[in-house]
Design goal:
Blueprint (H helix, E strand, L loop, with lengths): L64 H40 L20 H36 L2 H7 L1 H15 L9 H10 L2 H15 L3 H33 L3 H20 L7 H17 L4 H8 L17 H33 L8 H42 L2 E3 L7 H23 L3 H12 L2 H12 L7 H30 L6 H17 L23 H6 L4 E3 L8
Parallel strand pairs: 1-2
Helix pairs in contact: 1-2, 1-7, 1-8, 2-5, 2-6, 2-11, 2-16, 3-6, 3-8, 4-5, 4-8, 6-16, 7-12, 7-15, 11-15, 11-16, 11-17, 12-14, 13-14, 13-15, 13-17
Length: 584
């Protein structure tokens, strides 16, 4: 019988600025101490990005927790105004529709439309078609403009920081809410088409697309890769918590104030609070030195680009930011390009469905031919589905992360006795399988919507689709692991272009389909949803773990730089998780 083999630890040789090894194992180096400091048997995982924040007081240290409270408050107001805003648009369109009918036929008699009240006379095919087309126009306006603005803000944030640009992205929402209030207060003076002006203001500042890009970039800056999905999940949980409790609180708030307009005043106030808090209080996640390095790199790239009319046109191309989704050059590979494209395509479908299908699903549910829901029933449905998403993001996702990622890493660290450096080493197997599970739940829930013939099955199917919320958080965390830290904003900016395009193409597909099939085959929108989620599920099997852009990451400390000799002597000997292997 052959003798048992000893465990072998394969270490990486890290080098200093002069390319000298700082943790090279020699013949006299013991296996378990090859990467560990003398006398330190309890090694912890390290993350190079933490060097940017060393020595900072807590109020200047960036963290995703700084964003949770203002973001939760904002999403609470946003979720509370979602259904009232849609119903307000229905009332405004209905009011004008009946007014137009009286012009054509002076003998036409109709029940007056009261804004904010239940108006069953508005639940007719003609009004629903006009509402569908008008919401399509709003989404198109916001989507096209944010497709141009969001990537520019994302790339700009790599050079000038995330915080102030995130505050800027929220300014358009203030203008949009103000116009809603004006149109609702003076409906016969200001036509509901003025709401398109609010969509223009929202789109010019990047809208939800730019906000998502900058928030995810901020989170990636200050969160180690193993925790990134969970932290982004917290932000998504805030969004769905707002959708869950917002409608319920809105009902009580309207009953207390006696006016529907109070909801939109509160929403505008939350926008303003978010801008002030993020712009003045939240710490910046990019150090000054990292910003300066990004600016220098950008200046060098600009100098290397030939000047002329053609180069100017290429720079003005709104689709130019998408080139980072097909990276070429040193350190890239075809597998890297496939991974990024598959994740981007899947994320585009998820965002497009979430932003575009919600309106027509509510119109479907409130139709007399289906469930005939009112504002209360629609709010309850949104609250129930959103609450399941919150539980999935706050309980299920952290549990999966702990059991399948953190515990195995802790075991490997304990057995080897060396630290494991966390870096952007691509998606791992946990990311891939969580993504596939979430997409499978989306497909299953959409099929349930198609065949649901009673309200209980319809609501249950919505709760099944709620587990699809794990997919967005997983994708947005996983895709940031494919590139170096100084390209995260640029990559997410390109993803923002796809988000904006999905806000353009999604409403065209869903609203046009609903417009064409209402009263004939209302479930057609769910057939489209199931097909799109099925394509995304197939694309998720293209993603392979451990693929990333191979580029050296150099942390920029916030304190004064030390000499290379001192840095070499105090360097922590580490192993990357992918480079740590055990054989028997």
């Amino acid at each position: 019988m052959s003798a048992p083999k000893d465990d072998i630890v394969v270490t990486r040789v890290d080098r200093d600025v002069h390319n000298k090894p700082i943790n090279e194992a020699t013949e006299t180096t013991s296996l378990l101490s090859a990467g560990a400091p003398d006398g330190d048997s309890s090694c912890e995982d390290t993350w190079p990005g933490s060097a940017d924040f060393e020595g900072l007081p807590w109020w200047k240290t960036p963290s995703v927790y700084w964003l949770l409270v203002p973001y939760a408050l904002f999403t609470l107001a946003f979720g509370g105004s979602l259904v009232p805003k849609l119903n307000l648009i229905v009332d405004l369109v209905c009011q004008r529709h009946f007014a137009d009918q009286t012009v054509l036929d002076p003998a036409f008699v109709y029940t007056p439309v009261i804004l904010g009240a239940d108006n069953p006379q508005c639940l007719i095919k003609e009004v629903k078609k006009r509402v569908s087309m008008f919401t399509l126009a709003i989404n198109l306006t916001t989507g096209i403009l944010s497709a141009i603005t969001a990537p520019k803000l994302g790339k700009l944030s790599d050079r000038y920081g995330r915080r102030k640009l995130l505050a800027l992205a929220s300014c358009g929402g203030v203008v949009a809410e103000l116009i809603v209030i004006i149109c609702a207060t003076f409906p016969w003076t200001f036509h509901y088409n003025w709401l398109l002006l609010g969509a223009v203001a929202d789109g010019l500042t990047g809208s939800f697309t730019a906000g998502s890009v900058l928030i995810n970039s901020y989170t990636s800056d200050c969160t180690r890769p193993s925790q990134r999905g969970v932290r982004i999940g917290y932000l998504h949980a805030c969004l769905f918590m707002g959708l869950a409790f917002g409608p319920l609180l809105t009902g009580y708030f309207v009953a207390w104030t006696g006016t529907l307009l109070s909801v939109f005043y509160v929403t505008m106030g939350c926008h303003i609070f978010f801008i002030i808090f993020v712009g003045l209080i939240v710490p910046e996640s990019l150090s000054i030195k990292r910003q300066l390095r990004a600016r220098e790199k950008h200046d060098q790239e600009q100098k290397s680009v030939a000047r002329g009319a053609w180069s100017t046109l290429k720079a003005a191309n709104p689709l130019a930011p998408l080139k980072i989704l097909w990276p070429t050059g040193k350190g890239t590979s075809s597998r890297l390009r496939l991974n990024i494209l598959a994740l981007s395509f899947t994320d585009m479908i998820l965002l497009g469905a979430a932003m575009s299908a919600g309106t027509v699903i509510l119109l479907y549910s409130e139709s007399p031919e289906t469930w005939g829901w009112g504002t209360l029933e629609s709010s309850r449905f949104i609250s129930a589905v959103s609450m399941v998403r919150v539980v999935a993001l706050l309980v299920v996702l952290p549990t999966i992360n702990y059991v399948f990622r953190l515990r195995p890493a802790a075991y490997r660290r304990r057995v080897s006795g060396v630290s494991i450096v966390e870096a952007n080493n691509g998606a791992d197997a946990v990311d891939c399988w969580v993504l596939r599970f979430s997409l499978l739940s989306d497909v299953t829930g959409s099929l349930g919507h198609i065949f649901a013939r009673n309200e209980s099955i319809f609501v249950l199917s919505g709760m099944v689709t709620a587990f699809g919320g794990l997919g967005s958080a997983t994708i947005q965390a996983a895709i940031t692991k494919h590139v170096p830290a100084d390209q995260v904003g640029q990559l997410l900016g390109a993803i923002g272009v796809l988000h904006a395009l999905s806000r353009v193409l999604g409403p065209i597909a869903f609203n046009t389909l609903y417009y064409s099939t209402v009263g004939v085959f209302d479930q057609a929108i769910f057939v489209l949803l199931a097909s799109l989620f099925g394509l995304a599920l197939l694309a998720s099997f293209v993603v392979r773990p451990g693929v990333y852009l191979e580029e050296t990451y150099e942390p920029v400390p916030t304190s004064e730089p030390q000499s290379s000799v001192q840095a070499s002597s105090e360097a922590l000997e580490v192993l990357t998780e992918d480079e740590l292997m055990f054989t028997n």
